[in-house]
Amino acid sequence: MASAEHVRALRALLDGLHHAQQLDPACWETVLRLARSTRLHGRLAAAQLGGTDLPAVVERHLCSAARIAAFNRQMLIAELHQLAPLCQGDFPVVLLKGAAYAAQNHAGANGRLVSDVDLLVPRSALRTMEQRLHDAGWRSAPLDPYDERYYRDWSHETPPLRFPGHFLEVDLHHAITPVTARLNFDPAPLIEASEALPDSVFRVLQGEDQLLHACLHCFQDGDLGLRLREVADIDSLLRHHGRADGADATNGFARRLIERATQLGLLRPLWYGLHFAARWFATPQAVTMLAQLPPGAWPAATTRLLMDRLVPLAMLPGNPDLPPPLAARLARQAMLTRYHWQRMPLRLLLPHLARKAILRTRWRGQAQA
Amino acid sequence: MSPVSYRSFDLGAARVAVHSPVPGFQQQLDFIYRDYGEEDPDAFADVRLSLLPGSGLRRWWRQQIVLWSESSQPFDPYPLAHGLPLFEWGGNWLLAQRLNAWLLLHAGVLARGEHALILPAAPGSGKSTLSCALHLAGWRFLSDEFGVIDPDSGEVLPLLKPAALKNQSIEVIRAHPQARLGPVFPGTRKGDVAHFVPDAASIAARHQRARPRLVVFPQYRAGARLRATPVPPADAALRLGLNSFNYRSLGSIGFHSVIRLARSCVACELEYSSLAEAIDYLNALLDDHGER
Known about the structure:
A: mainly alpha; B: 5-stranded mixed sheet; globular
């Protein structure tokens, strides 16, 4: 069971992305450690630095995190600068997630760490863009033919590309869901509705689509282990549009978002995004919108109970110095199973998992030899 | 879940707290950190980590020890008896990740009075051996691994951990009557390793900053005659940056720190084979350049 101190520190981390916290140094230490384990330390620093009553040692660690985040941002700007000449206007190149938030100067990008630049291009332009990246010097790690085919035929992105010596990877997407997934849909309307960034060759998804993408990414990807920061993204995007709407709360972003989610068949992922943003970050916009969602968006009572139990176990950090307890491991396994189930039909999934299991046994054998 | 209890050590610029149920590792800590005393385990620590026994089959067969910190296991497990080297290297790595309020040089640091000598060096250059030898010759030990530079004041802060001596250096330093070394760990990923414990006076002075005066890039070469080659400030600044753990991530702060350091110090390359000659040379060099 989590200790009272742990619960208090986790609460302070969640609140601390928006509000100054006054804590004793020991509690601060736990907050910093939870922030680092969920890679939210840069965002925590952006929100807390400059506050009053910060113990010196805490200020030092926040300063350390802020410097890492500033360097990360610099690397992101450099990568975009080098990618820009490859966008020649013959097809749209859309920035996704962290790169987009930074290029748009969202408050939530302040201190947010990125490990890759995600680009979305129309499927018809995928080969051209990939060729341009290769010609300019980006390389993918060598893959065996099976992994190559996995990316090409079943995934929604090409294998990660890296320019030798660069800090960040480039992920080239032609869709925002795996092509084999149950929620798979044509990304053309997203690209069509995308918006030009001022003074830039890149485009970004329109606000509604950006939020739906964040929800999809958060709840339909892998084992959800420590993915709290994805919910933090949803929270920041909602607040950003809430501020932009001002008093016009009912007619503005919320209405467009719900319409768009209905149109794209993404009401369920949206429900999850709003639900956990409301629960963990008390995002005012999420609380309001949940009440406006049509009944079909809500998961069945049993599913909801189960997800309310499993998602926190999987996403929230536990005691940072101990291996995750059995409950968290099981919850992550359950989320991974759900992910695979949604990602691929069984006739693809079973052979794929069997192959991975065999390979894993072989690696273990080699490691111990 | 078993209760988690930590032991916390004050290294000067940072505190490290460690939890481990492995008795052998606790005994290694008792010996190596004897003169440090122990801090309140619940008070703020810059790095907190656990060294746990391996799980599954490894609990009984070819037992291992695993380092956990902040929900991740950043290194491969070590054999169970090698807790101390895992703690030292793992602790260094974790410190280097998160002390970016300071410029962190990869260097040995010693001082005479308030004047510090910085020995930035690549592995294999003999930095640790020379650092320990200087310490045994009366210099105060500030660090074997980290030159912690405060960008605001330009001072160097002690981050005093036991020095990890490797292979032949172990016997060279052990030969000195005052040297206190921990057990030898044979066959680690860096060869044989033993830990040299700084004297109680250096440990007691671990919050006392010093002013950098000399930057010496040491290069041990068997049979070589002592040879010192001056390094111009611009080259020294560049080499200090390249030798740093976090120069790149600090951006302009790192740049200004190494420039200031290079301007306030005399820098040279020192090729040597005799430790005694190298010590005499460095004593004389600091006599000449202590006041600037």
